Amino acid sequence: MKLIADFHIHSRFSRATSKELTPEELDYWARIKGLNIIGAGDFTHSKWRSELKERLGPAESGLYRLQEKFRIKDRMLPADPGPVRFVFSAEISCIYKKAGRVRKLHHLILASSLEGAENISKKLARIGNLESDGRPILGLDSKHLLELVLESDESAVLIPAHIWTPWFSLFGSMSGFDAIEECFEELTDKIFALETGLSSDPAMNWRLSALDRFSLVSNSDAHSARNLGREANLFDCGLDYHQMIAALRDPAQGFQGTVEFFPEEGKYHYDGHRKCETRFSPGETKKHKGLCPVCKKPITIGVMNRVDQLADRDASEQPKRAPGFKSLIPLGEVLGEILDTGSQSKGVLKEYFRLVSRLGPELKILMEIPTAEIGKEFPALAMAVERMRRGEVKVEAGYDGEYGRIKVFEQGELKKIAQGQEGFFPAGLAKKESAGTGENGPAEKNLSEPDRESAPALFRE
Q1: pLDDT digit string (tens) for 247-268?
Q2: Residue 106: which H helix or E strand, with range?
Q3: Largest distance between two CA atoms of the chain
Q4: Fewest CB within 10 angstroms: 12, 249, 320, 339, which?
Q5: How far is CA 13 from CA 48, 125, 223, 338, in A?
Q6: Residues 388, 366: contact at Cβ < 8 Å?
Q7: Per-residue pLDDT tens digits for 119-176
Q8: Whether 124 contacts 44, CB under 8 Å
Q9: Residue among 179, 104, 167, 178 nearest 138 (CA)
Q10: Kind of pairing, strands 157-160 and 271-273?
């Protein structure tokens, strides 16, 4: 069975998250996106766990479904969105001292059942405060966290989260390690999957032969329901927690790869200093000796630079056991570029839901539906999707907490293409000289939701 899974998400009990994050909203947006499996998120928080216990019911082995009485039914849904199941998940922030340095790492925990999630939470509650944040901060060594998790639920999984992010990750330039063995020591063989994060993709990770034995997973780390599925995992196995975990241990059992951001869009792909608007490639950083030319202070070393430091291959070499991946641009961002406005604007959201109702869930539109079929609804979108699938994009890399920009059209290109082509934009959506961004003036106001961008530095990834 073909499945799309997004294991790493958050609830409204985590800092800098949308207050609309509820089980029913997560279920609804999973259907809109085309996800089959989503993490329940933040199971260590007692109020959120109680809410999950009230609204979810057991389904297949290790999986849960939203009870029918809680399902949102008064909003548009795509035809036949497929089943949606929850798996109990949580993110833990470990801050501790090891080998003479302060380490700050985030880890994704998957529990095999509600009981397993409760057992893990009870033991963690003896160590630190689980109620102040859905993603608790604990003074706990990562190795000891792994021991505790496996003692509490032998089928649970620990996956180091967004492993290259500078501030809070396994290989982070600011507080991480140079090798996974330095972190987990004799328990390293209990780790079999690593989360690449938004600022890297599998090809970048393939430059390190030490990572060849791990499955590379990708998740949205969503702080709002609309961001579900911006990265995800592809399986071909039974609708079953244990089968999915077996596939991560051995991809031949059904792990088929990941859905990825173009890594340049991630907030820490390049080096830089956001306050001074300094963005550097690794080569430029070396030339400037790691200092910002504006303020003369050290710049934040990003993911690409850190990969360069640890890589033992000059170019990506796909391991034999490794599946491939697909790089996508979220549908709302593509529509925002075409319509020359914000990705969360009223006009974009209206067109987004029209397309989903006509064509199917977002991920199906981006990955599967023939562009000829998309073109019947929106020719400009069909052209954009075709270019995206071929990797023909224009990139402006993110740095030091600033998201990058990925575009498929040159400035003014769409206007030239549309001339003389009736229906290139759906009725009522033709670009107007008075609307939009860039050459066309101020953008339409976005209907934005809280995002980690607004969070204190301590909680950024």
Answers
A1: 999 999 999 999 999 999 999 9
A2: strand 101-110
A3: 69
A4: 320
A5: 7, 16, 10, 35
A6: yes
A7: 999 999 999 999 999 999 999 999 999 999 999 999 999 999 999 999 999 999 999 9
A8: yes
A9: 104
A10: unpaired
C-alpha span between 255 and 362 (Å, rounded): 21
Q: What are phi and psi of 354, to 5 degrees?
A: -60, -45
CA distance 282 to 311: 13
**Structure tokens given for 330:** 């979220």
Q: Measuring CA to CA, how many Å separate 342 from each of 324, 335, 438?
A: 31, 9, 11
- Tell which wins on pLDDT, 416 or 375: 375
Residue 451's identity, in one-letter code, is D
pLDDT band at 412 (very low <50, low <70, confident <90, very high): confident
Residue with tokens 């949606």, as numbered in its chain = 84
Q: Give the mean model confidence (pLDDT) for residues 441-449.
A: 39
DSSP 250-276: -GGGTEEEEEEE-GGGSTTSBEEEGGG
Q: Which amino acid is at 251?
A: P
Instruction: Report the SS3 class of residue 231.
Output: coil
Number of residues that this document lists for the chain:
461
Separation of alpha carbons 218 and 432, rounded Å: 38
Question: Amino acid identity, residue 409?
Answer: F
Contacts of 132 (CB under 8 A, 6+ apart): none
Helix axis angle for 114-125 and 142-152, nearest 10°, is 140
Nearest to 366 by CA among 221, 229, 227, 198: 229
